[in-house]
Design goal:
This protein is an alpha/beta fold. The chain has 15 helices and 69 strands. Among the domains are: 186 residues, Ribonuclease Inhibitor (Leucine-rich repeat, LRR (right-handed beta-alpha superhelix), Alpha-Beta Horseshoe); 31 residues, no CATH class. Helix 14 crosses helix 15.
């Protein structure tokens, strides 16, 4: 008996020891052996598929040779602490592609799903974002049904087709599925169903009734295209959350349908954003008894807000509400916590009655409205967490009472008119701040960043200052240490540390969590700031544009796979691009190194396989463009190599540009012909090859593209006729080449906005097809050999802003129909054979109000990174500005005798009229004096007569006025002295006379060259001085109709009488003094008397004889 007891005790002791060993194994991370082997098999599959580094990929997944190794401690693996079985596998994005970069799959992971059958206790499996395809179905997805505890499966963001639907039907244990499919009726136990971002239509809605316990349904971003599906949804009586956003719903349910909707007694949250309901939808939804959250953002709602007293979250962003803020409705919201009325048309101030929302309100957004006035009422919302007042018209100082909002986590007052200084006390008291944006206001003075030093929770700081009166100081007090760890920092255009020689902020050395840094436009100095990258391993975007960094580009010590965006443009970076840049920044998607002093080859760039946009313009790169740049980078969409020293036949042979949408090769030394396009699909939207040495003809593929296209081939050696085709050109510039023949009338001009055919060898007349240019803004066909009359149908070009017809052989008169082009601002008809008079109605040449010429031809590539989790979903959208997509218009025009090119937004400001070098006659219309916005007026080298209109003194913006080489007469109006903008004035070689205007204001800058060829002019700056006889009175100034040759009769009679009196007195004086001449004068009188007597006597005799006969 004793032995039996001892034996029994030993047995129990052995059992307990075994359990203890097993528990220790669990505590030390032990796991089931077959599951450990399965995990290692998954790792091997990935390494073999993507050629990954064995040491760096999943470094914790190591086979140490022991049985039951510590795989529960491995990354991405979660085990049951009791049994040791794997329960959760998070295998999302195993390749490590940055998830903000949607570049597509380079290769497919041939995963054998059967490997997961070893995980008997698995409850959650995430395989999203892994470049899986239908092979996952073929390798036994249906067999996962043996995993009876599997409740969550995520297969989103892969390349799996419809074949997966039948396999998923076997997974009856699922509760959460992140994938859209049709056979939902097979999954009766589903509680959460996410079908977003698919192409499902209304036919799928009918099958939802087979999911009796469904609690959450996300059908967003599908196509319903019908009225609100009340009948189908009313059967889901357990539904608590419903998302039908962006499903193209419209209208409003009827009263009966609204009654049925009340069956959803458990529905707490409904999102209907991005649909087209009318305002009565709110009253219909008020029948939902448990509704707490209502999202009707991005719609067309207007009118008054209804009283929904039980609502906690009301989102009405981006609708058509207007008027003042609905304060009365606010008083009915007794439980409201979140209110978003942003992006509407509200005006006026925020009344103090907004305190009715207190104490429940936590989040308020009035952003993107037209609010102004006082914001003191917001100080009463003591429990506020988030406040967004951005993009309104608030002004004045920030109220000091804001420092009482001690719970405030998010504060955005950007894009207003706030002035004064930023009080440090206000910032110091808001210690709960996590997100702050003070951008684009009118603050002045200096602000010390150390005011944020005690803000432990601070994550996002945005200051886009762009204000020379504001300075950001980061180095005082010396040695201050931040208690925060930022995720995003934007200090753009803030005059950073101007008194401290513009150094990089020192507090950044203590930051380790930054994902986005923007220090652009600050004149910062020093070497390439490697420390910013090395210290922040999660850094995604580094923007140091427009500073004064020098030295070379040096690589960090380790690989930074998260960096997708690097902008070092407009600095003073030297030397070459490192050859191993692809090793340290393997997933770089946006690279901008433009406007530096870089040189050498660009071959290393071709190894950046994930590039989407590349700008290397305005440097000194040389050599040829590597072919791998077009073949190795399959996702490259934007390439700008402008203004370098690159050469070679980059466009010769068979062309295939993959996914290129924009290609800029201008201002290099490229040669050769443009080759043939071999790809069936084309994404190309813009191509700039101007200012190179390309030869040959334009290939036909350029004229046969299906999408809207912009082509700039200016200043090459291209020739021949331009090929006909269907391409809907919106921008076509082939000027300064050798194209010949008539202007092609077989092109698609319907989308044309800018047409430049100048400086070629085109002949014939302006084609009739030009009457159908409904959207054209610029028409430049100057410097060709065109002839005929200027057609009257140009009046049909109602949007025309610039008309260039110079240096052709046009004849006839200027059609008065041109006066009906009310938006035209530049007309150049110089150098033709146009005759007749100048139409007085050309006074319509004005400066249009609406700008149409872009200041920067840019493409905005944007990555939306949510660096801060908030109720308002505030995210900072980082923008990479590339001067690629959309061409800048360029026009040559003569101003101040200089024939120059003007480009981009300056064309919106230019107003000019050039009719020089023609055969125009008659007088200058005085109506041209009404062109108060004109900058340049050139009427030289014609046959104009008359005077210079005094009304020209009204041309207050005139900078260049050329009336030389005509037949103008009269004086130069002294009133022209009032023209303070006049920089060039030329009236040489006319018939002008009289005294010149005084040497005052701008006229003090004009030399004698402005007046030469007018011999009757006098006064400075001419050497000829004015005398009393040389000054001719000009009466043309009174009414503007008197002629220079009309005589002042009072002056004439007075001067004549005085002359005769002087003469007679002198004559009498001579006779009185000299007796000899007195005697001779009396003899002469006597002789004349006798002669006259005998003449009369003889005449009387002859008449008497004749009468008698």
């Amino acid at each position: 008996m004793e032995c039996w007891c001892v034996s029994k005790i030993k047995s129990w002791l052995l059992i307990w020891m075994t359990i203890l060993v097993l528990m220790v194994c669990r505590i030390e991370g032990g796991c089931i052996e077959e599951e450990r082997k399965a995990l290692l098999e998954i790792k091997t599959s990935l390494i073999d598929s993507y050629f990954l580094d064995l040491d760096q990929f999943l470094p914790s997944w190591v086979d140490d040779g022991s049985i039951g190794g510590k795989c529960c401690d491995w990354e991405r693996v979660t085990c049951n602490t009791t049994t040791g079985h794997v329960t959760n596998l998070s295998l999302r994005n195993m390749v490590g592609i940055p998830e903000k970069f949607y570049g597509g799959c380079k290769s497919i992971w041939p995963l054998n799903v059967s490997v997961f059958l070893n995980f008997k206790e698995l409850t959650s499996l995430n395989l999203s974002w892994n470049c899986l395809d239908n092979n996952i179905v073929n390798t036994g997805l249906r067999r996962l049904s043996s995993l009876k505890k599997l409740k969550t499966l995520d297969l989103s963001l892969n390349s799996i087709g419809n074949e997966i639907f039948h396999s998923l039907g076997a997974l009856t244990s699922l509760r959460v599925l992140n994938l859209g499919f049709e056979q939902v009726s097979l999954l009766k136990k589903l509680k959460i169903l996410n079908l977003q971002w698919n192409n499902f239509n209304e036919s799928l809605i009918t099958s939802l009734s087979a999911l009796p316990i469904l609690k959450s349904l996300d059908f967003s971003y599908n196509w319903l295209g019908l009225s609100f599906p009340v009948e189908e949804l009313a059967q889901l009586t357990n539904l608590e959350e419903l998302d039908l956003s962006h499903t193209y719903l419209s209208g409003t349910p009827s009263i009966q349908e609204c009654t049925r909707l009340s069956r959803l007694k458990k529905l707490k949250s409904i999102s209907l954003q991005w649909n087209d309901f009318n305002k009565s939808i709110i009253s219909c939804l008020s029948t939902l008894p448990s509704l707490k959250t209502l999202d009707l953002s991005h719609g067309t709602l207007s009118g008054e807000l209804l009283h929904l007293s039980d609502l906690e979250v009301l989102l009405l962003k981006n609708n058509d509400f207007n008027g003042t803020l609905p304060m009365e409705a606010f008083t009915s919201f007794h439980h409201l916590k979140v209110l978003d009325l942003s992006a509407n048309e509200f005006v006026g101030s925020i009344a103090s009655t907004i305190n009715a929302l207190s104490p429940s309100i936590r989040v308020v957004s009035f952003a993107y409205n037209k609010l102004n006035g006082s914001i003191l009422g917001l100080c009463e919302l003591k429990n506020l967490w988030e406040l967004d007042l951005s993009h309104n018209m608030f002004e004045g100082n920030l109220p000091h009472c804001f420092n009482s909002l001690s719970s405030l986590k998010l504060l955005d007052i950007s894009s207003n008119q706030f002035t004064g200084t930023l009080p440090p006390s206000l910032i110091a008291n808001l210690t709960s701040l996590e997100y702050v944006d003070f951008s684009d206001n009118k603050f002045e003075g200096a602000f010390s960043f150390s005011s944020f030093s005690s803000h432990k929770k601070l994550e996002v700081v945005i200051f886009k200052c762009n204000n020379d009166k504001f300075e950001m100081e980061t180095e005082e007090p010396m040695g201050w240490i931040p208690m925060f760890q930022l995720k995003a920092l934007v200090l753009s255009g803030c005059n950073l540390n101007r008194p401290k020689a513009s150094v990089v902020p020192g507090f950044l050395l203590q930051q380790r969590m930054l994902r986005m840094i923007d220090l652009s436009h600050n004149s910062l100095r020093g070497q390439f700031p490697n420390r910013l990258i090395e210290n922040n391993t999660m850094l995604e975007a580094l923007i140091l544009r427009n500073n004064s960094f020098g030295g070379t580009i040096s690589m960090p010590l380790h690989t930074h796979a998260n960096l997708i965006w690097l902008d070092m443009s407009e600095n003073q970076i030297l030397r070459t691009i490192p050859g191993d840049i692809h090793k340290f920044f393997p997933y770089l998607a946006y690279l901008n190194l433009s406007r530096n002093i870089l040189d050498g080859s660009i071959s290393s760039i071709a190894d950046l396989g994930w590039l989407n946009a590349l700008d290397l313009s305005d440097n000194e790169f040389s050599g040829e463009v590597p072919n791998r740049l077009f073949t190795n980078i399959s996702d490259l969409s934007v390439l700008k190599l402008s203004k370098n020293l690159l050469h070679g036949m980059v466009l010769s042979g068979n062309l295939s540009f993959g996914h290129f949408s924009s290609l800029a090769l201008d201002n290099n030394c490229f040669t050769g012909k443009i080759g043939n396009w071999t790809s069936k699909d084309s994404y190309l939207e813009t191509m700039d090859i101007s200012n190179n040495f390309f030869t040959g003809r334009i290939p036909h593929w350029i004229s046969n593209m299906s999408q809207e296209f912009e082509l700039v081939a200016r200043n090459n050696s291209l020739e021949g006729p331009f090929p006909c085709g269907k391409t809907p050109f919106s921008f076509l510039d082939i000027s300064q080449n050798s194209f010949s023949g008539p202007i092609p009338s077989c092109l698609n001009f319907q989308e044309m906005k800018h047409l430049h055919l100048g400086s070629n060898k085109f002949t014939g007349s302006i084609p009739n097809v030009f009457r159908s240019l409904p959207r054209v803004l610029t028409l430049d066909i100057g410097n060709n050999s065109l002839s005929g009359r200027i057609p009257k149908f140009l009046v049909n070009l109602s949007d025309l802003r610039i008309l260039i017809l110079r240096e052709n052989n046009f004849s006839g008169s200027i059609p008065k129909q041109l006066c009906q082009l009310s938006d035209v601002s530049l007309i150049d008809l110089a150098g033709n054979s146009i005759s007749g008079s100048i139409p007085s109605c050309l006074q319509n040449v004005i400066s249009p109000i609406k700008p149409v010429f872009r200041e920067l031809t840019i493409s905005i590539y944007e990555t939306s990174s949510r660096y801060h989790q908030s109720v308002l979903f505030k995210e900072y959208n980082s923008l990479l500005w590339l001067e690629i997509l959309g061409m800048q218009d360029e026009v040559q025009f003569t101003i101040k005798t200089h024939y120059r090119s003007y480009k981009g937004h300056i064309l919106d400001l230019m107003v000019g009229l050039d009719l020089s070098c023609n055969k125009l006659v008659g007088e200058i219309p005085k109506e041209l004096g009404l062109l108060t916005q004109i900058h340049s007026l050139n009427l030289s080298h014609n046959q104009l007569t008359g005077t210079i209109p005094m009304q020209f003194s009204n041309l207050e913006n005139i900078e260049s006025l050329d009336l030389s080489y005509n037949g103008l007469s009269g004086k130069v109006p002294s009133e022209l002295i009032k023209l303070n903008s006049l920089a060039y004035f030329n009236v040489s070689y006319n018939n002008l006379s009289g005294k010149l205007p005084d040497m005052k204001a701008q006229f003090s800058t004009f030399t004698s060259e402005s007046y030469e060829g007018n011999p009757l002019l006098c006064g400075p700056p001419l050497e000829k001085k004015c005398t009393s006889t040389s000054q001719v009175t000009d009466a043309s100034g009174e009414e503007g109709i008197d002629k220079w040759y009309e005589i002042d009769m009072v002056s004439f009679y007075g001067s004549s009488g005085a002359t005769w009196v002087v003469f007679l007195l002198g004559f009498v004086g001579v006779l009185y003094i000299n007796p000899y001449w007195r005697r001779r004068w009396l003899d002469l009188i006597e002789e004349c008397m006798y002669t006259f007597y005998y003449f009369l006597d003889d005449l009387v005799r002859k008449l008497s004889t004749l009468f008698r006969k």
